[in-house]
Amino acid sequence: MSDQPITVMIVEDDEVAAKIYEQFTLKLEGFQIIATATTGKQALDMLHVVTPDMLLLDIFLPDMNGIDLLREVRKHFRGIDVIMITAANDVETVREAIRGGAYSYIIKPIMIDKFMSTLAQYASTRSQLQQHTTMDQMAVDKLFTKASIAPAARTAENVTTLPKGIDKLTLKLIRDKMQVTEHSVNADDLAALAGMSHSTVRRYLEFLVSINEVTVETFYGTVGRPERKYRWAKA
Hints:
Blueprint: E1 6-11, H1 15-25, E2 31-37, H2 40-47, E3 54-57, H3 66-76, E4 81-86, H4 91-99, E5 104-107, H5 112-131, H6 137-144, H7 168-179, H8 187-194, H9 198-210, E6 214-219, E7 227-232
Parallel strand pairs: 1-2, 1-3, 3-4, 4-5
Antiparallel strand pairs: 6-7
Helix pairs in contact: 5-9, 7-9, 8-9
């Protein structure tokens, strides 16, 4: 990957949501937030001053529809990539986002592991495009089917950018423990096996979920919080 950070503009009228996107984007190495806009007009005005590599774009903006903003970006700022983040789940909106060339589409309420894995995959795609002048059909197919790559191909070793707080050695230990665990386990069970804190183990498990090496199920009891149980997904 280039030494230059991936610059990001957030276009979101919900200040709390914008702060969450900023917080978790910055947890990934190599990303930099350079602007935040709360309306479509504000975003377009900013784009005439700064040119980010990527927009995190909501659809329901106070003054315009995000799809219309996406079209304007495609018309005047073709070098900017766009990830839609929205509560809109109707087929027509999704279709128009695809037609407008959105890199990805995340439906609210967002799952943080989905959000971070999408950004990590974007960084990987960007890196591959920067490193090569030509590509064979297999390499092109992988880029155009990024959402359906087999889980075995998307291991931690193949993720270009590991999130901050994810250490390779600790990740290997958690992976090794999960591989020899025959049944689904919760974070507390694995924390006892690995000799680590619940919060540390949970963080690594969620990362493994995000790259499809571990599956997770949520169990709802009669009282208390839902319980998440994890299982090694690879053959």
